[in-house]
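<amino_acid_chain>
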Amino acid sequence: MLNRRNRSRELLAACTVLALTLVGCGSTKTDSGSSGDAKGSVPAAVAAAVKWAGQPIDTFAAPGPAIDTSKITGGKVYVIVPALEVQDFSVVANEIKTVFSRFGVDVEACGTTGGSPDGVANCLQQAINAKAIGIVTVGITQNTAPSAIAAVAKAGIPLVNGVTTSSGPGDPKLVSYVTPNFVKLHSWLTDQFIVDSKGSAHVLAMRTTSNDITPAWANDGVVKVLKDDCGGCSSKVIDVNTVNQDKIPTEVSTSLVADSSMKYIVAGTNNYVPDVVSGAQAAGRSATNTQVGTVGGSLAVMQQLGKSQWTGAVAAFSLPALSWYLSDSLLRLMVGQPRAGALDFPFQRLFTSANVTGLDLTQKGWSNGSWYGKADYVDGFLKLWGKK
């Protein structure tokens, strides 16, 4: 797969989970750090990375060879998510339903009460009892309900772990992993702020602490990038999760009041943006002097970017495209094709004021993937599966 971050230093491989999907406990705290090399300059590699990340994806790159799906007829697939009432999860579940309807396969979506161990175990057991021919989990780590995961493996049911890590444990004939690279996406935001500030960005970053892997998003995608690549930059980190989300406005406001030079905020994922903006407003900031960067690419934040309303950069990934990649991964396990190496999910793109103009910032534009370029993943997958 095409690597959409081609630069001299490589960040930590994706160890990622949607912050939106997980509920973790812990207090809000802040850490500060300053950076190292030449001050007030933008390294060529950073400028090149920003330019590259903003390019459209115009060619479909198959995640594997064509497969014979002719024997997949009927049965039931389970899609297990933290909460069906959350739009992102319902989008993924519905898109996977669309895919498997072409095979005469029913799809059952199962919510897990916020991704709780009991909720996850219950949904997995339902799938086992229903003799499911496959399972896709979204934003649910392997260690959430290990006994239930083991029971799925014992039952011989193929399992795709979506939006957790790019690789992990499990029999490669039965278990695979598909996720956007959240460390990479955070680093794109950081690079954009380095370029925009001409090498003098003072960045406030939300560090998601929902579990043991999400802190890497800010640690490696923001703090490390600034330290390695921008001598005139600095960072401050606020630890956040969905439990203490109500404290974000106060923490953001306090930080911005204490440091008037802090003009850039990495909000993490889209769900934290309203709280971050609320905190910035409480600190007397406006969209003309403070920029917010976010990961995800929801329609709302893209519309804000298009109108220059607080959002200054969006490191986006296509949920509909991700759903087709999850489906492809499951189909490959179903036909006996073991997982290969970690997938570099391609439908990711950095959006700024430089390339948002002209995009169809409507529900239609969001759902049809036109923001990301001309690559037709639907047509590409149907051909790989022998459905066209």
Q: What stands out?
A: Residues 43 and 288 are 26 Å apart (CA to CA). The first helix runs from residue 44 to 53. The radius of gyration is 21 Å. Confidence is low (pLDDT under 50) at residues 1-28.
